[in-house]
Amino acid sequence: MSSKQVRLLVITGLSGAGKTQAMQSLEDQGFFCVDNLPPSLILKFAELCVQSQGKVSRAAIVCDLRGGEFFTSLAEALEDLQRSGFQYEMLFLEASDEILVGRYKESRRRHPLSPSGGILEGIQMERQKLTELRGIAHKIIDTSNLSSQQLRHQVAELFGNEHASGPLTVSVVSFGYKYGIPLDVDLLIDVRFLPNPFYISELRPLTGEHPQVQNYIFSNSLAQEFIEKYLDLLEYILPHYVEEGKRHLVIGVGCTGGQHRSVAIAERIGIFLKEHHYTMSVNHRDAARNRKGDRTK
What we know:
The protein is α/β, with parallel strands linked by helices. The protein has helices at 19-28, 42-51, 74-83, 97-107, 119-129, 131-136, 148-159, 211-218, 221-243, 261-275, 287-291, and strands at 7-13, 32-35, 58-62, 88-94, 139-142, 169-176, 187-190, 248-255, 279-284. It folds into two domains: 3-159, Rossmann fold; 169-291, no CATH class. Strand 2, helix 2 (42-51) and strand 3 (58-62) form a beta-alpha-beta unit. It is globular, with a radius of gyration of 21 Å.
């Protein structure tokens, strides 16, 4: 087995952001996982994977601040890995300060950079120390609004499709701009220029998954022309992503609240992807949030 046949994933990020759950998800997908490996041993570990003669073809390594002084050499270790002919992917996990503080208080754990207390100060110091690594990460997942199960599913979707029916997995995510843009989006569509069903009283409590809402949106000639042109664009560019070796693509579709227009457009894109035999999923991040009583659009 050559070095190119070993799929190596490095997981890092903020303490409390979900690295353990991510590793467990990868183990379920058949990855050989090592937690808290010193960066100086990464190259040796990759060489051992090659020497396993195919027994270890996918491996994941968790490296974080628990490694103390060893951790500071991670970027250098990854450069050595590439110089030796190994390719790797890096997954960076993060969450908001507020969420991380809450998780630490709930678990009653101490932050590794604040052993005597001061959780927030420790989180902010860690965020600063990890700036360089975040910048070279291939994928960033913000776990602030994800349950453990949702995180495990997302990691499996990103990295566990080794035997998927196609070479490219496409995730379509609808969202509301007022809740923020998803961090891992590759292609971003802003559909706030389309007529808003929120202002139609009988459509307001529904989502873009309902036929009534979809009929309202796509009866408009602007929406018809837009979706036709955008699907033509996808038909053109997706094969080129495959040629470049991209394994996973995230398409973000945003409107103001993430309940009507973005949902309907995302659903239509999902139908297109399915018809073209791409491995795909459609997720409506904020649709349920709006139906629970947030009336501002």
